[in-house]
Amino acid sequence: MKIVFIYPSFERHADSHPELRAVVPCNEYLGPPSMGIASVAATTPPGHEIVYVDDRVTVFNPDMEADLFALSFFTPAATRALEIGDALLARGRKVVMGGIFPTQMPQEASKHCTSVVVGEGEGVWPAVVQDAERDDLKPFYRAGPLADLGSFPPPRLDLYLNAETDTHKPDDYPLQFTRGCPLRCDACVLPSVMGRELRFQSEDNLRAIMTRLARAGKLISFTEDTSVMAMQGVRRRFREFLALCVRMQAEGTPLRFSYLGISMPMILHLDTDLLLQLRETGIDRFYLVGGFDRITRDAFGKGDAKAEAQAHEAIRRCHDHGIDPYVSFLAGNRDDDAGVFDRMLDFADESGVELAEFCISTPYPGTPLWREYEQEGRIFDRTWKRYNDANCVFRPHHMSPDELTRGYLYLWREFYKTRRADIVSREEHARRTIQF
Ligand code: SF4
């Protein structure tokens, strides 16, 4: 069979608010796709032709001929994905949907495709392919118990690397060191998609992925903030991983890193040895997820002095160890009133944060926040493409949706008024523009 994997496009911040392009170099860098398709494609039984289409780069043409079309997407891409599904079904094609959104909203996805994969795709994909060959696709495929990551082959990075063009050449690709999370941050969908047990990638797969990326001259990013958690032996495993990186570097594999996802509470609980080991390995930037944890919520939402001091301490620890903190500020949390925007800007100025992005709190389907806001009747917009951290889709507690959106734009404008000039080279730009 000819199988076409499609990564549907979605709006980024400056697509939703073109005025941002005047204040910060938004959308000049198109990041890599998520690893979902590469991971699932790797489990395709032998004997099939695989084609990969990045709809963000080349708009997908539904007249394309193939035996099976597979779309993997998160909520921001759902509007476009469901549209593609409809266009393919109208042409009599077989369409399978999987990923975060179909896992959380299987009934909604099922109206736009032949089959929905609910949960982790790798385990069930071979059965989907077999059923498609027999013309016997089921409406739903549910993933079984969460599998050992080492039992899956390494992701088909070649699909992404071969699809690069002159205008789309990401400088960094993500490496998934773990999957799952035992915590329950109310705005995070990860535990309900990947499970509450942390699972580790195998050393063989880590080696294979890193070698491939190094050979391609790519930077490696760790997008999840679970790599350095202080539980379930994660730190020990992560230290072993860093030691592996140093060994590979000594063996001549030129590993280079883009950033490590982390939060302020985690930074405060990192021991100095680990910070030093991170620097020794070449990790010199933290992508600091804000607005999910108690410290950042209290510091910016309530102006709580103790939390603010802790936030300053977290940034100081980064600077003291030569690690550049890239802070993602999330506005619109429960305690946030109209003063939150200036509190964030003051904090950034006082702590010396030179790189930041700003997001609007978004109740993504499947998160505890989504359920809570649904019950409270706060959600007024279900246009999935507007679920991209750049639009307000709910009624905030202490301001109007308009005030929140205006405050978000104010944050971008004010923060980059004095900082834009130092974004220089393309690679540096890539390292500096992760989300938007
Ligand atoms: S935000 Fe991070 S720590 Fe919180 S639930 Fe999600 S993955 Fe876990």
For this entry, give a set of tags:
436 residues; alpha/beta; pyruvate-formate lyase- activating enzyme; 2 domains; 6-stranded parallel β-sheet; 14 strands; 15% strand; binds iron/sulfur cluster
Question: Describe it for me?
Answer:
The protein has 436 residues and is of the alpha/beta class. The protein has two domains: 2-142, Rossmann fold, CATH 3.40.50.280; 171-432, Alpha-Beta Horseshoe (pyruvate-formate lyase- activating enzyme). It is 39% helix and 15% strand. The strands form three sheets. It has a six-stranded parallel β-sheet with strand order 2-1-3-4-5-6, with helices on both faces. Strands 7-10-11-12-13-14 form a six-stranded parallel β-sheet, sandwiched between helices. Helix 10 (234-250) runs parallel beside helix 12, helix 13 (294-302) packs across helix 14 (305-320) and helix 15 (340-351) packs parallel to helix 17 (401-417). The mean pLDDT is 94. It binds iron/sulfur cluster (SF4). Iron/sulfur cluster (SF4) binds at residues 181, 183-185, 188, 190-191, 225-226, 292.
Shape verdict = globular
Mean pLDDT: 94
* Parts with pLDDT < 50 across at least 5 consecutive residues: none
Shape-level CATH architecture of the largest domain: Alpha-Beta Horseshoe
Structural class based on helices, strands and sheet pairing: alpha/beta
CATH superfamily grouping of the largest domain:
tm_1862 like domain
- Strand order, biggest sheet? 2-1-3-4-5-6
Report the β-strand fraction as a percent range. Answer: 5-15%
Query: Which fold name corresponds to the CATH topology of the largest domain?
Result: pyruvate-formate lyase- activating enzyme
Biggest pleated-sheet summary = 6 strands, parallel
Report how far the terminal alpha carbons are from each other: 36 Å
Oligomeric state as shown: single chain
Query: Which percent range fits the helix content?
Result: 25-40%
User: Please, how many helices?
Assistant: 18
The total count of strands amounts to 14
Radius of gyration: 21 Å
Total separate domains? 2
CATH class of the largest domain: Alpha Beta
Bound ligands: iron/sulfur cluster
